[in-house]
Amino acid sequence: MLIEFKVSNFLSIKEEVVLSLDSTSSKFLLGNTFKEEDYSLLKSVVVYGANASGKSNLAKAFFFVLQMVKSSLQFNIDTKIPRIPFLLDRKSKKEPSKFELTFIKNKTKYTYGFSCTENGIVEEYLYYKPRGENKKLFFKRDETIKEKAGKYKFNVDQKKQEKWGIETINKKLYLPKAVNIHNYDTLKEVYGFIVEDIAINFNPTWGKYTRDRLVTDSKFKEWVLEILQKADFGGITDIRVKKEKRPISGFEIKMEKGTIFHKPIKEKEQEFYDLSFIHKDETGKEVIFKEDSESTGTNKTLDILGPIYNILETGKTLFIDEFEINLHPNITEFLIKLFHSKHNTKNGQLIVTTHDTTLLKNKDLFRRDQVYICTKAPNKWTELNSLIDFDLRESLSFENAYLNGRVGGLPFIDETFFEGKDG
Questions:
Q1: Strand pairing of 371-375 and 44-49?
Q2: CB-based contacts of 113: which residues, under 8 Å, 6+ apart?
Q3: Mind giving me the DSSP string for 243-301?
Q4: Kind and range of the H or E element at 229?
Q5: What pTM, to 2 d.p., does this model score?
Q6: CA gap 23, 41 in Å, rounded
Q7: Beta strands at 97-105 and 349-353: parallel, antiparallel or unpaired
Q8: Over the stretch 312-336, which tens digit does the pLDDT of each residue have?
């Protein structure tokens, strides 16, 4: 379960911002919270803000951490780490970007973090707190120390890990190396949480996952159909998916010494999904709609229902950037309510960024600690605040507070653009 995420000096984020799913002591909408060990955590968080305020950069920071843990083992001594610091400050360009995740896995609380520049890892650390015990250091890495033997400090399996640490070049994170190269079981659940328990919609395979599962899992298919029917998606009575391989061919375009060549590609097979939505006409006869005949909103909802189902059944964390695109406000509210409802038996967590302020109209949807506001003045940096940072009552209309500018996060529109030259 995710407790907290911190990031600084990354894209539009200069100074540290904190996204916390640790709930306050408020007794309001307790169904939106759950207990995990000694913590009361939130089932969902929503992030608002103007365009270019940094909402998507928060998601990109999450994604950067996931990709670094997944992929840094492939880096070599010449690799430039693809981090982008805050570019509107000369000092920040040279300083490292910092990232930190705090979470609970198998009754143990972990805090894992690292900092890096494009030239390498600067710092990496892991703390853990078993149930009923104090916080302990697992390992700490400091690449600013010149002596190899002094770069790492280990409090578990010291001799074994010291050898692995010394062998780790500064372009690679130690955590994935210990797990994937040395098969170090003790760190597998930390690694597994980061690469398996957090899903972000920058992954283009979400639609494929949903379609695969529709083919193989009848229980999932029944759930999808029930969702589409309860949410009034045009009377869909069935979904049929055929997975098949079809031959494809074409041309590969190459340029050599200023000349363009068209090289034929040998015919090969590729997987395709033949997706049909079944409706009924006035006589009760089946009418088949192909995927491109259904609305964009229906197709987007179908794409994300697979990951949502997976998160609900496993208790993982789902991050969806620009949640409202192609979806009616009633549908976005319906999907969020899934996480607050009895369907969320494993306490899956949902984080979304959105412009859809109608979600704030329903006073029974969010608590104050579930609503975050991103703000950024022109040529400044992103700031992130929860509504608990403002003097607002739980009973107040969050939508009015946001749209009236009481909590920031609104674009400033210069109306003089519409005035004539003479005023």
A1: parallel
A2: 6, 98, 99, 100, 101, 123, 124, 125
A3: EEEEEEEEEEEEEETTEEEEEEEEEEEEEEEEEEEEEE-TTS-EEEEEGGGS-HHHHHH
A4: helix 218-230
A5: 0.86
A6: 5
A7: unpaired
A8: 999 999 999 988 888 888 889 999 9
